Amino acid sequence: MPRIPSVRGRLKDIPVQGRKKVLLAAPRGYCAGVDRAVIAVEKALDHYGAPVYVRKQIVHNIHVVTELEKRGAIFVEEVDEVPEGAHVVFSAHGVSPAVVNSAAERGLHAIDATCPLVTKVHREAVRFARDDYEILLIGHEGHEEVEGTAGEAPDHVTLVNSPDDVPNIDVRDPEKVVWLSQTTLSVDETMETVRRLRERFPNLQDPPSDDICYATQNRQVAIKKVAQDADLVIVVGSANSSNSVRLVEVALEYGAKAAYRVDYSTEVKQEWLEGVETVGVTSGASVPEGLVKEVLLELEDAGFGEVEEVKTAEEDLMFSLPKELRKDLQGNRDARAIGGRNRAGATA
What secondary structure letter does DSSP report for 6? Predict the structure, then answer.
């Protein structure tokens, strides 16, 4: 989808009975893993020059991908599309050992931008498989993170797409079963799936720590609080972003009268605002803050100039960049060796 520039005055201020305002959820937008991955591609382009190849979308956001393409990133589905000897970045969602081996066989210079929280789940899968546990992986079939995690222990993993899958699951040994999960899922749906799994398998073991990403949880908690007071919720995020799609669902479950997902402010429709006094706004974990600001500007034109931030958590986590990118072109430690940028000003 090509980006359509924000057009001021497109939305009209139609009077309502009460006072118009925006409830702006916080936290929202970029998480530490996304920030790290995007910076990794930017720095790889600085270090090695264009093109730099990226397997899959570096993060699930059409704007981020488009902007990186303008700088010389080439996104491919599989590493066999990458010329031998080229540089390739693995996306934040992670890859299986088979992908790593395929890249090595082609002589590719691989840079692993997998989110460290996803890497943690991979390591858990390896450890439980080594101990001959059957791993019930809660996640969505076809999602890159699920494919990467399952690829760590394919003979020990059974995918559970939803709570409704639970009655059809068979395991070899009910005494040696553990659950792991895709990090970007709905917290509520995941725990409902775990509850049903435990009814079937009372000795089901929990992972050493909660696998749902802190950023996913925080954004869902924030939108739950916003939704109960919102006539309308707008979630900025792409259609293939699992956590963005979940935010729409969570908003509706927790009281929003309507909720929509948009990539850009120009997708906000006038008819959504008819009779609306309070608009909740948030964004998925792979969305630059600049896109949210554009939505707020267009809402201001429609009379929603009062903005109240609803903050439910503080986030200050940062991750080190991949080791290949921690030094600048002169070999000195880079100021961004630990990933991170001013979230409020990030527009990449």
Answer: P
